[in-house]
Amino acid sequence: MRFHHYGLEVPNLEESVVFYKKHFRLQEESRVSFMEEDIVFLAAREFRLELISSQSAEKNAHLCFEVDDLYELMKRFEHIQKIEGPYKLENGWETIFYTGPNKEVIEFLQVKPA
Fold first, then answer.
1. Which residue in 70, 73, 54 sits closest to 62, CA to CA?
2. How far apart (Å, rounded) are the C-alpha atoms in residues 110 and 114?
3. Rounded CA separation 87/85 (Å)
4. What is the mean predicted confidence (pLDDT) over 10-15?
5. Are strands 61-66 and 27-34 parallel, antiparallel or unpaired?
6. Which residue from 28, 43, 64, 68 could staple onto 107, CB 3.0 to 4.6 Å apart?
7. CB-based contact 8:64 (threshold 8 Å)
8. Phi, psi of 100 (to 5 degrees)
């Protein structure tokens, strides 16, 4: 398992993209749409920031860890509260979300077929 990205919901996606590119020198890695959300991944070396367009009054964030086998992880996490998923994204990635011990959101992502 390795850290993949930090996700942040933002009310103005394009303004946030410009800000993080300018001030943090992040480069746009990819854009995807998923479940009516527009998402932009920005990256620099091993760091990724996922910006998620959201008009919610609550600003949510999550940690994401990349795993080699999502379904093996799901077996290990069968007693941990699942929030949602698993989902297969348009780019072939598979993802699932769980609740951590302090109600934090933890995402696990498989980017390569097992």
1. 54
2. 8
3. 5
4. 92
5. unpaired
6. 64
7. no
8. -80, 180
By residue count, the chain amounts to 114
Distance CA 64, CA 50 (A): 10
Tokens 């769980």 — which residue? 98
The amino acid that residue 70 corresponds to is: L
Contact indicator for 20, 64 with CB cutoff of 8 Å: no
- Upstream peptide bond of 101 is cis (omega within 30 degrees of 0): no
Boundaries of every domain in the chain: 2-110
Give 18-57 pLDDT, tens digit per residue. 999 998 899 999 999 988 889 999 999 889 999 999 887 6
Handedness of CA 54, 60, 65, 71 (dihedral sign): negative
Q: Is the distance from CB of 37 to CB of 72 less than 8 angstroms? A: no
CATH class, range 2-110? alpha beta
* Strand runs labelled E in the chain: 2-10, 27-34, 37-44, 47-53, 61-66, 82-88, 94-99, 105-110
